[in-house]
Amino acid sequence: MTHATKAIYKLLLSDFVKISKVSVDDMLYDEHDIARTMEKIEVIDFHQTMEVNGIRFWCYTAGHVLGAAMFMVDIAGMRVLYTGDYSCEEDRHLRAAEMPHFSPDVCIIESTYGVQIHQPRIMRERRFTDTVAQTVSQGGKVLIPAFALGRAQELLLILDEYWEAHPELQHIPIYYASPLAKKCMAVYQTYINAMNDRIQKQFEVSNPFDFKHIQPLKNIDGFDDIGPAVVMASPGGLQSGLSRQLFDIWCQDKKNSCIIPGYVVEGTLAKAIMNEPKEVTLLSGLVVPLNMRVHYISFSAHADFTQTNAFLHELRPPNIILVHGEANEMGRLKAKLITQFAEQNVKILSPKNCQTVEMFFKGEKIAKAVGRLAEKSAKEGDIVSGLLVRKGFTYQLMAPDDLHSFTQLSTGSVMQRQSVPYKGTFTVLRHRLQQMYEQVEVVTKADSPTLKVHGNLTVTHEGADYVILQWVSDPISDMVADSVVAMILKLDSQSMFAVGGGRAKEARLEKEEIKIVHSLLVSLFGDVTLDEEHQSLTVNVDGIEATIDHVKRGIECKDENLKDRIKVALRRIQTALYPLDA
Amino acid sequence: MGTSVQVTPLSGAHSEAPLCYLLQVDGFRFLLDCGWTDSFDLSLLEPLKSVAPTIDAVLLSYPDTIHLGAFTYAFAKLGLQATMYCTLPVHHMGQMYMYDHVLSRKAVSNFDLFTLDDVDTSFANSVQLKYQQHYQLQGKGEGMTITPYAAGHLLGGTIWKITKDTEEIIYAVDFNHRKERHLNKTVLENFVRPAVLITDAYNALNNQPPRKQRDQEFIDMILKVLRAEGNVLLPVETAGRVLELILHLESNWAHQRLSYPVALLTNVSYSTVEFAKSLLEWMSDSIARSFGSSRENSFLLKYLKLCHDRKEFDELPSGPKVVFASMASLEGGFARDLFVEWATDSRNLVLFTERGQMGTLAKKLQAEPPPKIVKVTMSQKIPLTGEELQAYELEQRLKMATETEVDLVEEVGPNSPEAKAVTGPLPLTVAEPGGGVPLGVEGSLATNEIPSQRQILIDGFTASDKTAGPMFPLYENPSDWDEYGEVINPEDYRVEDTEMMDYQSSQQAPVADVEDNTDQEAEAILADRPSKVVVKDYTVYVKCALYYMDFEGRSDGRSIKNILAHVAPIKLVLVHGSAEATEHLRQHCVKNVCRDVYAPRIGETQDVTSDLCAYKVRLTERLMSSVLFRKLGDYEVAWIDGEIGSQESEGMLPLLPSETPPPHKSVFVGDLRLADFKQLLATKGIQAEFAGGVLRCGDAFAVRRSGGSQQLVIEGPLSEEYYKLRDLLYSQFYML
């Protein structure tokens, strides 16, 4: 809300708490609640642009009352204007509602006055001052029941200026009898910059809200009811309070006047006396004749049909949503606007309370390519790959390296150094790796034997018991690293086995070897006899014999075919037994 | 492709001279500030002279003399035509500064550089903006947006952001990062990587004591002098930092229930405070809050007496008092008078709250050690008396007679003769500055024979030369006749139905001029009474205490460096600051902020066009439907592989999903602080400690940053814990 609104908000709600003397349980809220809301309020000045979660909004002067604002909300380029209560007519202290520079996609607009048309302001003011002047010059008293805020200040300005210009009236006192209005005066004296140029001009001389001819009136006891006077008192509906007390005293004298300066709620005394009944009931219950003259001069600062129509015609929103207005009045306004906007394709809606209006807008998402990515200007068919960064509703496209330059984000990297126990020889490891992976290079310059796998992962043999794996993290490298680790572990467990037995183990393997070869050959060829003494094997296939000298790896066989088969088999067995020797 | 940007200092580069810079953005010429000194040295404006008529827009950042002092003069005399943009308080307070200058100069000399009317006209040609109001320039500047942001230092102080397409240029001088009594701190820190930042080096070498300590010392010092029956003179700027000082003093006076009189003595003191009262929405949150909750306007001052002239001031109760008086430079205004008066009493104190401008009396007095004797030239305007007066009147009358003659020929109307006659320029005689001896009036006026006949004429009444003797003017009203009689003008007979408005305008009439009442009075005195200027040289033996305390409300060197490092502009331009300070900050920034740091000299045009490239593409629905964003603070990030499609009828090139995305290296996005990681580990029940910049986790693991780079290193033996740790580390990044 605006600064002025915040100041008034506090006054108004506190006043409500004070006057609503109901039981604590029925109380809607109390002072404490108000104080808590005060902390939550963010103030915004007119035209100041705020941004929350990428949604931008700012406000325009709305007229109506000090601090009133129309909000424009911009969500990813889609704009909605909410007028709230507004008035396009400049009055004595307020600016007229501003016309936004661009047309919104949706305009949510009030329709309080529907198709009614106001009398020109000059005429109204004239009627008002004439009535007041006439009454007091005949020795009568003028009662103006008005709400403490908004119109009250406007009327006081009119009266003060009128008195200034008419010295003959200056002996007649003007009072405003509302503690709230008195408090509000400080707000009006301060937020001069939210008012119109006329007030600002005057302010350069003296504060126009330092009234020269008007005094505040605390209560009826302090009021010396002698001779003519003008009193503005709240409440506006004459339900109770000071305005009613004065009304009760003055209503029987036909010299006196009561001016109702604006909208009054149905069911109040003020509404009732507008029809000029013969009699009225006093607070005391007495029924007395109503002789006082009653005038209704509307100073209401809401837009009338002429203003609404002109406003919408200039604004040209494709969607209009009517809110805040009595149903019939709104219906008439809607019908009239539909005929007015018949040629243009304008949607006009008047949803009921709690009825959601859904509209779909297709926003264009525009990304700005910046930095290295944009070094070449774009043309059709170019491939653009990079980071798409969204902040609010703006998109930027950039190379990862530029992330740091254009955003507060940064890219990082994680280097991993893992030590893996390995007691085997580095050659074995190298061999295994070369078998398993496509790119294994030997780094020659390193202090300790180092291998580079897949261009990223380095495996270093440091000390006798460990290898160090080092790589820069990314999903592929992590996977490679994990598989290398798995392999090393396996290798290590095998070599553990080998190392544990020492040379004896190897000898045993040699002894066993022939047995293994034998059993494997049996599974392949069936009839194979083992001659352990000569370390030879005899294979008999379909009557053809072949002798294998295990030590010399020689094969004697008349049939070349079989010889080849055995040769292949032996090679495979060899590979299976000594995979690293191949 | 890019936007071309050039900066040319016109004043205030490699020196503490007033600020005035020319900024060209694609040929559109901004004048950034338009400052002058209190001594109104015309030679300072030489560089401005040639460019003034070519300026397209003027951006003012503060209402004080060194930021806008020359604006009125440039507008009136140098052909500056451009619209001026500023915030509302700068507009109001800036006028106060200029009024005060004109009035205090006029009171003692024949000041003719500019008049009150010039001030009004120059300020009338302006657009007042709110903070964060995105104002789109029209016409030549189409496509450019200027936005003011809060800068602190002075009420309404502004950082300007100029945006064109993708370029952001920020002009931020004299900002204050500290929150103060009446002002919020600057929002400069919210900007991230602007293309160009223009800032000052004025305070680069200064450091400030903590605010609390300084505030206390300030009050203690004043009270000490007052209790010893001395007076305290605070030479201040008209409507700038004085607001902060007033609040400070007020709160202490209220707190300690002091009764020493405090006075604000400037020509515009009433208006200044009155404006301050109505500008609460521009002040600090605490002021707004106190008004919002209790409607107590902080500038509803209880102790401060507002004085407009010496008479009002002299009427204050006698005894020790505190006086805020303008000008801060002691070059003019009441502060100069009071200084000469009070300096000779050792009980008094002259307390400077800002550094004096170069070459001014204030600067001389702030020297270390303070001078014992200063020579002060005082001038005074005294009304003419006796023979001089008669001679003057004669001269006037002769002059008027000839003028009126011309007028009469030019236009015939009932009002013209007297109107013209009164407003004719009044030449005042200047006396030559005398020698060392004070007192005595040197300079005389030639006396002439006075024709007795003419003596009966009063001012404003002039005799036509066509008549033999003086007579009342007679105007024949020739009327046309036709066959129906006299031809009338129906307008003359129409009854105005806007009588309503009449009383209003009649009330307005005498004050329709924007000027303050006091201004009029002062002017009336000056204009009506013939006077002459007397110049005297005084030798002032400075016995009073002199002291300087930094209440300038500017960020100090260290904070400036921090802020610059945070904002990290792509190109940086340094202006305003002594050569030493500029060089110091330049070297610091080259090392720590960015490579492109420039400090152009006066008249030297520095090109700061950014070499950044950019283009825009439209993100198609098809592409966006397959993009998965990851949230990271305010940002959302995704990797996309797109292909530029064919351009449709108009608008931007669309970006379609690529059929054959090339492989890319994965990117880790995020910035992990080890301290944060330690906390995270603690929540997961892993012991972690820092040891020599390395975070030791558990028994055998270490996480560290490798050599100042963005790279983190995680080390440890193969184990289950290793992978757990790694997963936690990964969870702090986004892998794309």
UniProtKB/TrEMBL annotation, chain A:
Query: What cellular component terms from Gene Ontology apply here?
Result: nucleus
One BP annotation, GO: mRNA processing
Where it sits in the cell: the answer is:
Nucleus
Read off the SUPFAM superfamilies from this record.
Metallo-hydrolase/oxidoreductase (SSF56281)
Record-linked Pfam families: Beta-Casp, CPSF73-100_C, Lactamase_B_6, RMMBL
Q: Where is the Beta-Casp domain?
A: 152-273
Q: What is its main location?
A: nucleus
Sorted alphabetically, the keyword list is: Hydrolase, mRNA processing, Nuclease, Nucleus
- Enumerate the GO terms in the molecular function aspect: hydrolase activity; nuclease activity
Domain Pre-mRNA 3'-end-processing endonuclease polyadenylation factor C-term, by residue range, is 380-580
Keyword tRNA processing annotated: no
What's the protein called, per UniProt?
Beta-Casp domain-containing protein
Q: What species was this sequence derived from?
A: Physcomitrium patens (Spreading-leaved earth moss)
Q: Which gene encodes it?
A: LOC112282644
TrEMBL record, chain B:
Q: Which InterPro entries match?
A: Beta_Casp, CPSF2, Cpsf2_C, CPSF2_MBL, Metallo-B-lactamas, RibonucZ/Hydroxyglut_hydro, RMMBL
Q: Identify the main location.
A: nucleus
- Write out the entry's keywords from A to Z: mRNA processing, Nucleus, RNA-binding
Residues forming coiled coils: none
Q: Where is the Beta-Casp domain?
A: 242-365
User: Is Nucleus set as a keyword in this record?
Assistant: yes
Q: Which CDD domains match?
A: CPSF2-like_MBL-fold
- One of the protein's GO biological processes: mRNA 3'-end processing by stem-loop binding and cleavage
Give the UniProt family note: Belongs to the metallo-beta-lactamase superfamily. RNA-metabolizing metallo-beta-lactamase-like family. CPSF2/YSH1 subfamily.
Which protein are we looking at?
Answer: Cleavage and polyadenylation specificity factor subunit 2
| Organism phylogeny | Eukaryota, Viridiplantae, Streptophyta, Embryophyta, Bryophyta
